[in-house]
Amino acid sequence: MPSFKICYAVVAVFLHCLLYGCAGAPDRNMHAASPVLTPEEEQKTFQISPDLDILLVAAEPMVQDPVVIQFDPDGRLWVVEMRGFMPDIDGKLEKEPIGRISVLKDTNSDGRMDIATVYLDSLVLPRAIAFAKGGLLVAENRKLWFTKDDNGDLRADLKELVDSVYADGPSPEHSSNGLLYNIDNWYYNARSRFRYKMVADQWVKDSTEFRGQWGITHDDEGRLYYNYNWSQLHADLVPPNYFSRNSHHHPTTGIDHGLTNDRRIYPIRPNPAVNRGYVPGTLDSAGKLQEFTAACSPYYYRENLFPVTWNQNVFVCEPAGNLVKRNVLKQNGTLISAQDPSPGKEFLASTDERFRPVNITSGPDGALYIADMYRGLVQHGTYVTPYLRETTMQRGLISPIHKGRIWKIVPKDAVLTLAPPMSSLPSSELINLLSHKSGWVRDHAHRLLIERNDSSFYARLKSVVLNSNDMLGRLHAMWILYALEQSQTDFLIPMLKSENIILSNTALRMLEPIALKNDSIAAAVFTLMKEKLKAGDGKQILQIALSSSVLPVKNQQIILKDIAANYVESPLIRDAMLSGLYKREYGFLHNLFTTEFLKTSQPSKEILIEMLTMAVLQNNHPDESAALLSLVNQSDKTGWGHKIVLNAISLQSANTTKKIFSLHSKPAILNNSEVKASLKWTDAINSVFSWPGHVPDTTKTTIKKSLTENERKQFVMGRQVYLTSCSGCHGTNGEGVKRFAPPLVNSEWVLGDEKRLVLLLLHGIEGPLQVNGKKYDAPEILPVMPAHSTMDDGDIAAVLTYIRNEWTNSATPVSNRMISKTRHLSQGRVMPWTAADLNNHISTTGSITEK
After folding, report:
1. String of b and e for 779-809 (b: at least 16 CB within 10 Å)?
2. What would the pLDDT profile of 93-143 be if each residue is shown by its tens digit?
3. How far apart are alpha carbons 671 and 666 in whole angstroms?
C-alpha cells in the first residue's frame, strides 16, 4: 500500500499535467533505480569530446562530500569536505561538527592522490577556503577563520577568528561563500556584500556589491563572474565599488550583468530527482531536465594546456543535470556575452545520476579539475518539495553518503608539465612567473610576492611594468606595487599613455588617490583623459567616466560633457557618469542646460536629464532644489529639457520618505503658463516645496494613492529599471518606438493578467501582437522581444509595477513573490511565447494567487 505522501506526489504530478499541459508521456524508465557505481564504473558513464580524457584523481574514502577544491603553490590539493550536508532527507544533525579540510598529495607523480592529511577537523558545514599569509582562510558555521600550520605537518596549529558574521544565512545554499583572491588583492565572495584584505597584518572587512549565489571566479583583468541557480552566468562590467559611490543614484547596469539568456541544458539521462520535477516543462518527455535549476561554481579557464579555443571559456556546474556546461565569451565594446559553442551536447555529461559536479578549478599542470560530490540528494532540506522527497526515498537516493570523487580533464595524449613548487622560490623567480602562461601560476606568484613585501624587489617590479613585453606580467606587477603602496607616477603616467586599454585603465584607477592630493597630477590626468577620449574605445571611455570624479569640478564637467555628447546612448556609460557625480549632479545638469546638449532631443538624453534631476532631489539640498526650479523656468527655449525635469520632480513627489525643501518665496515657475496648465506638475511642486504662506500637501502625488509606501518605492525604482532596460524599445513615455516595440500605454498586455505579463517578460514573445485594437508585426516592430530572465525578481517586480501604474495605466502592483512563483512554475520554458500560446497557457492554468 503506497503511503499518503507517495499518493500526494503522484496526484501533484497529475494535477500539474492537467493544469499546465504535459510535454509528452514521461519515459517509463525515468524512475528506474540509480545504483551506486565505483569510480571506475562512473568513469565509463561520461560523455566528453573524443579529443579529451577524464581521469580519476581521488575518491572515497580519501575524500568525502567534496564541495571546494584548490591547489596550493606547491601543488598539493586542498579539499573542503562538507560531510554534514543532508545526512538524511530532513537534514537532521547537519550542525554536527563532522566537516573537515584535507590536503591530498600525489607522491609518485602518477596523477592519482595517494596521501590525505586532515588539516582541520570538527567543522560545521565548511564552505570556502583561500590561501593567505602562509595560512588558510576557512569559512564554516557562518564564521571566517584564519588558520595556519606552524610546524609543517599539514595540520592547523592556529585558528583565529576573522569575522564572526561572515555568512548571513543559515542555509548552505544561501550563505556567503567563494573567498576568491582577485588581482586587486581583495578576497571576494558570492552571495555577500563584503570583501576582505590583509593590511599591515590586520584583516580589513569592506563593503562591496552583492554578487551571485554559489561560486565566483575572475578573468585576467580581474572582472568577476558568478551565477544563480536559475541563471548560469553573470559578470561585473565595471571594477568593484565604483557603482556604489553615489547614494543619490541607483544604477541598473554594470554589476550583475547577465551574459546569456540561454538556460537550456542537455543531460544524457533522465533527471527525475529535481526539486520541481512535477512542474510540466521542467523535464522533457524523456524525463531530462531542460534548463538550469542548480547552476553553480562558474570557472574562468586561464591556462595554456588546451587549444586557444578555450581562451575566454567559462565552465558552469549543473549538478541537478549531472553535467558541466561550457560557455565561450565575446567582448563587444563595453559589454560581454556568452554562448554555448555546441548546442545540443554538453561539454561533460554523465549517465550516472549520482555524478554531482559542484566545483571546478585548475592546477599546476593546467588541467581542469572537477569536484564530484557523488550522492543522490543535493537539495538542502529547507527547500525539499514533497515531490522530491518521495522521488528520492522511492528511488533509494538518500544513501549512501560520504562518498566523493575528484576528476581531471586533459587533452588526449597530452604530456603534462607541472609548475615548480613556488612557496620556497626566491622572489626573483616569482617575478619571472608573473609572465607565465598559466593564470594559476601567475596568481600564486602575485600573492606570494605581496605577502613577502621585500623592498629589494620593488625596482625589479617597476622595471617589469615599464619594460616587459608581456602585458599580463606588467599588469600583475602594477597591482603588486599598488598593494605594497609603491605605486608612483614615474611608471603610472607612462602606463596611462599606453595603447593597451587594460594597462591604461589600470594606471588610471591607481592614479585616482594621487590625483586627489596632487593638483599637478590631476592636471596631467585631465590632459591625458582628453587625449584618450579622441581614440573612442568604449572600455577606455567607461573607465574615464568612472575616474573623472577625482578631477576638479570644472575639468570633470568638461570630460563628462564630451562623453555625454558622444556616448549618451550607452546605459552603462550613463550609470558610470552618475556614479562619479556625488553631490556634483546639479552643477553638471546646469552645464548641460547651458550647452548644445539640449539642442536636439533623443530618448537617451531624456534619460540622462531625468537621472541627474532625480539625483539632485535625492541630495536633499534646498538651495540646489530651488535653483533647479529657476533653471527650468528659464530654459523654455529648449523645448523639452524642462519637461523632463518637471516630470522627475513629479516622480519624486511620490517618494513617501521625501524631504520638504524650504524656499524663500513662491517659485516663479508656478506662474509659467505651461506649468499652470499641468495639474501633475503643479501638484508635484506644491507637495515637494514649502515657502512663506504655503505648507506642502504631502498627500499630493502623481502615483496612485492605492499603492502602499513600499509599492511607491518600488514604482520609483521601477522607473530607473525601465529607463535602462525598456525605454529604448517602448519609449520614455511608454508610447512605443517605431520598428522596435508597441506601446505600453493602455495595453491589455500590461494591464491584464499579471502572471501573463511576468511570463512574457521572463521568456519573451514573438510574432504578431494585438495591442489596444491594433495589430503589430515585423517590420513595424521587432520580430521577437527577448527574454529578461537574467533580471532578478526585485527588478522585474519593480518595472512591472511601474508600467502598470504610470502614464494613464492603473493596475495592481506586482510583488517579488509573484515573480519568484511564476519563475519556478514556468521552469523548463526555453523558447519565447507566441501570443496565442501564452493566452492559451493562461486560460488553461489560471492566475497565480498571492496566498
Report:
1. eebeeebebbbbbbbbbbbbbbbbbbbbeeb
2. 889 999 999 999 999 999 999 999 999 999 999 999 999 999 999 999 999
3. 9
Cβ within 8 Å of residue 561, ≥6 positions away: 588, 591, 592, 595, 597
The count of other CB atoms within 10 Å of the CB of residue 587 is 16
**75-84, 616-625, 751-760, 839-848: least confidently modelled range:** 839-848
- Per the CB < 8 A criterion, the answer to whether 294 and 413 are in contact is no
Residue 17 confidence class, pLDDT cut points 50, 70, 90: very low
At residue 621, the pLDDT reads 85
- Measuring CA to CA, how many Å separate 811 from each of 651, 718, 747, 763, 801? 18, 15, 11, 22, 8
Cell of 407: 576528476
Which amino acid belongs to residue 810?
Answer: S
3-state DSSP: the chain helix, strand, coil percent, rounded to 5?
Answer: 35, 20, 45
Strand-strand pairing, 177-181 and 689-690:
unpaired
Q: How far apart are CA 27 and CA 17, in angstroms?
A: 15
For residue 373, is pLDDT > 90?
yes
* Mean pLDDT within 58-78: 98
For the chain, what is the largest distance between any 2 Cα atoms, rounded to a whole number of angstroms? 90
pTM of the predicted model as reported, rounded to 2 decimal places: 0.91
Which three cell numbers mark 323?
A: 553535467
Q: Note if the bond before 400 is cis, omega within 30 degrees.
A: yes
On whether the CB atoms of residues 743 and 771 are closer than 8 A, the answer is yes
Q: How many CB atoms lie within 10 A of CB 848?
A: 15
Tens digit of pLDDT for each residue in 695-705?
987 666 656 66
Strands 689-690 and 661-662: parallel
Contact 488, 466 (CB under 8 A): no
Provide the CB-side half-sphere exposure for 511 (13 A, CA): 34
CB 488 within 8 A of CB 482: no
- Per the listing, cell 599539514 goes with 154
Give SS3 for 834: strand
Chain centre distance of CA 812: 30
List of residues 6+ apart from 687 with CB closer than 8 A = 653, 696, 697, 698, 699, 700, 701
The predicted structure's pLDDT at residue 699: 67
Q: How many CB atoms lie within 10 A of CB 527?
A: 11
Digit-coded pLDDT (tens) for 794-840: 999 999 999 999 888 999 999 999 998 888 778 777 788 999 999 99
Q: How far apart are CA 330 and CA 731, in angstroms?
A: 29
